[in-house]
Every structure is written in C-alpha cells, then in structure tokens.
Amino acid sequence: MRIGADFLPRLASALVMAPVAVLAVWWGGWPFTLLVAVAALTLLWEWLRMIAAKPHALLLAIGGAALLLALAMLAIRPAPVAMAIVILGAIASALAARGGRERRLWAPFGVLYAGALALPAAVLREDGELGLVAVIWLFAVVWSTDIAAYFCGRLIGGPKLWPRVSPNKTWSGAIGGTLVATLAGMATLHLAGVHTAILAAPVGLLASVASQAGDLFESSMKRHFGVKDSSHLIPGHGGFMDRLDGFVAAAALALLIGLIRNPQAPVRGFLMW
C-alpha cells in the first residue's frame, strides 16, 4: 500500500486536535460552545478568503456577529430563532458584499456554511440525556469515513469517484468508508447503552454519505476558485474547512432528520428508532 507524503503531518495534527475536540465535547457547557464558536468563525474567515470576498473585514464582522448571536440565542430561545438569525446574517452579508457578481453571490453562503457547523453541533450537544453520545457518534462516523476511505482507496484502488473534482478519491474508498462508518456508529451507540444501535444503522450510513458529499463539495469550491487549501492553519490538512467539511454535512443531516422526526428532542429523533 502506498502512503501519501502528507500522511505523517495529517496524523500528527489529528493526534493533537482529536483529544481537544473530544475533551470539549465531554465537558460540554461553555468550553464546547467556545470551541464551536471559534471553529465556525474560522470557517467563515476561510470561506471569505477562498472566494476573495470584499470588503473582507466587514463581511467577517457581519457574519461573525450573526453566528455568535445565534449561539447565544440557543440558551434562551428555540433553535428556529437561532437559524433565523443566521439567515438574516447571510442576507446582510449579501447586501454588504462588493466586487464581482460571482463573489457577491457566494459571500452570504459562508455565513450559512459556518452556521451549518455551529447550530447542529450546539443543538445536539445541549440534550441533557443523549447530547454527549450524539456528538461522539458524529465523530465516530465522520472520522471512520475519512480513515477507512483513505486506506481502502489505497489498498483496493479502482475507478475514481469524481476525478474532475477530487482525483484521489475512489469508489472503493467511498464504499469502504461508508461501511466502516456505519459499523462505527452502531458500535458507539451499543457501547453507550443505546438499544436501537442496529435500527440506527441507516442513519449512520446516510451521515457517512453526507460526510463524503461535504468533502466533495468543499473540493469543488476550491477547484472552482483556484485554491489548493482553504488556509494553512493545520499542518497536513490545510484549513479548518478542509478538516470539518464532512462533519458540517453529517451534523446538518443528523439535525434535520432529528427535527423532522422529533422537533422537541432532535437527538432522540435521529438516534432512537
């Protein structure tokens, strides 16, 4: 099996970031909210940087204020209020954006993209009974998808998944990542004492597919705007967007399923079947 030259830097970065993320999730409360806020603001900064949106500082201030206000609102108002604030922030960004038509079009989506990280993570974690399990389950599914897809793709090889967007990804990696992630999600729920681990397997499979779709979406955005990495903040990974693209999509899907099935308790909505 041929290992990429970036494997060791990626591994070192993961060994530093993963324990910090897990500790913040386990702790919950303000440490987790702070981590989510920092990650969301960084995603917004990287998005605006990637599309070269102008005026950069004003758009970052507008979007950042909307994200922080939305996270604060979650403590005293239902989730739809926070979602509405994010949408209003995106509209304000669209009105403030300057420059070419394409960049003005894409600028507000940075607020929505960062909000798709912040709000699902915060809403799911605040569940007093299953919040910790829900976010750890997301970590297990998304991380297993990435790891299994990486190694399956190199061990098995075969046809490319979408060579025009991401030339290194293969169908074998995508399928292997999905299968391993589904099993990882089931194992996480079983170890947590959730008795619907088998019935929740399809949600794990869908979350894994969403994670890979999020990765492809981010790759297509970078290719479209001629950017190799969203930033250079994380050695071996590029930027936060390069690392969290799959989590954003999987978390948003999990929250959507949860809200559809149980608007009052979305975590139970996607974990309990």
The helix content is: over 70%
Structural class designation: mainly alpha
Number of helices: 10
The total domain count is 1
The number of strands is: 2
Regions with little confidence, pLDDT below 50 for 5+ residues: none
Q: What would the average pLDDT be, to the nearest integer?
A: 92
Rounded to an integer in angstroms, the radius of gyration calculated over CA atoms is 18 Å
- Beta-strand content bin: under 5%
Main sheet: which strands, in order across? 1-2
Major sheet characteristics:
2 strands, antiparallel
The geometry reads as: globular
What distance lies between the first and last C-alpha atoms, to the nearest angstrom? 40 Å
Could you give the order of the helices and strands?
HHHHHHEEHHHH
Question: Which labels suit this protein?
Answer:
Phosphatidate cytidylyltransferase, transferase, 273 residues, nucleotidyltransferase activity, globular, transmembrane, transmembrane helix, 75% helix, single chain
Task: Give a written overview of the molecule.
Pathway: Lipid metabolism; Phospholipid metabolism; CDP-diacylglycerol biosynthesis; CDP-diacylglycerol from sn-glycerol 3-phosphate: step 3/3. The chain crosses the membrane at residues 32-48, 57-75, 81-98, 105-124, 130-152, 173-192. This is Phosphatidate cytidylyltransferase. It holds the Pfam family CTP_transf_1. There is one protein chain. The chain is built from ten helices and two strands, in the order ααααααββαααα. It is mainly alpha-helical. The protein has one domain (7-271). A two-stranded antiparallel sheet has the order 1-2. It is globular, with a radius of gyration of 18 Å.
